[in-house]
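A quick aside before the break. I want you to see a complete sequence-to-structure record at least once, exactly as it would be stored in a machine-readable document. Don't worry about memorizing anything.
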Amino acid sequence: MFFFSYFVARQAFIDNRSSIDRWLNRTCFISSLKRDDLLNDARRAYHSYGLCSSSSIIGECSQGFDATNQGHDIGHLIIIYDNIKQTFDYTFLFTNDYEHIFLKESKLKCFIYGTGRKSSKCREINLLDPNEINPKHNMTWWRDPSTLYEHLKELIELLNYNEHMNNQTDVNENKFYEKYFSDQYLLSKDLQDKYLLKNTIEFSKNDCDRNQTTIYTPYLSTWISPQTKNIQLNSTFFKFLKVHQVENEHQQPICSYPNIEKINSTKNLQLIDHILQQAKTNLTLYRSETILRPILLNLLFEKNPTLINREIDDQQLIGLYLASGLDLPEYNTSWLYFHILSLYWRLMGNASEALNCLFQSHVLSPNHVEDLTYLSMALIIYNSQKNLNQAIYLLYESLAINPTGLLLTHFTLGNAMGKKGYRDLAEQWYQSTLKLKADFEPAKQRLRAIQC
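That is the input. The structure line, written in tokens, reads:
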């Protein structure tokens, strides 16, 4: 008895949770075997077909699969190599017909199994290291196959939790998300160990004597330039924007909120939607970020400063210029354009509109810049001084894309932990920040305040 099904999510494992909803939409294979029997059967199959160590069926032979659906079906992690495109597709496969997938199918397709072993078909192909093709993929499993098992375990744990919650008919569906915003989850040792960078800086007595009291201000106005992702942003990007294209001189660049039901994406948009909708009820403490005004003026008018000398307010001029791109395909399909629109609304002190633009930016963004969109959303929610745990969750999502890519993610986690009163965790995140940039003075000041 078997059920054979593929779930493909290209480049999906950089953000594990983004695949949950599609995985749940499969037809479940209900086996007569119980959980332990399914797992033992899988171990024996992996062992007998040479997909793990020949000395024992424990350890490596237990990697790459797990029981799901309340322990009644078995899911396997498979990576299929497309020789023509030279790409890897992450795939979940639900079956216990091991002769078919390990013997017959393996001769037809190049599989990389969850244990890191490759099928016989792979021997005929010159496999290229995906990290050399595109370093931004950050496919650690290529050099360390054991990381595949970690991804699978996390996803299945979330899947089983989701199924459990879906079976609770008297529980509001939104309560499923609350697990991710609880202190138990956000402060767990597993999460800290996964993303914290080990570092040891201790300030001397002389340093402490010079220490000035540091207040964990909940309000930080910070812009993360796309140049941190090696994306050039200058006046060339805005060359098609023209004020005369805007009929109403009071028009503003309003972003439509994405209709997530009509978007075909592996991104976990439902969870982000839940966070943003909840955050929008508590944005009254958000304030205008005037530091963004010279940044936007420089971006838009660097090559044509005479345009600034119009008889209208600078902020109104910025809004008109940006609004002129809403109907242009060069801009309304660009994640970067909507990212810039969010800066305008932050300048205007409208966090709700800024979040709309950032959500649109996130929907359009390629995988390697999603850490920037997660961080940007987190900063607005953090600066609103409410929904702190939701902001922390988004910061972790940013780290899931690239654990060391954005210094400010580590720093903001330190501020958030300090704001919540967890000075020990705040200290660790400031240490982590300084591991990335040893001369980052704001982190040094806060770390000194904690130690002294």
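Two observations worth writing down. The chain is about 45% helix and 5% strand. Residues 326 and 332 are 6 Å apart (CA to CA). We'll return to this after the break.
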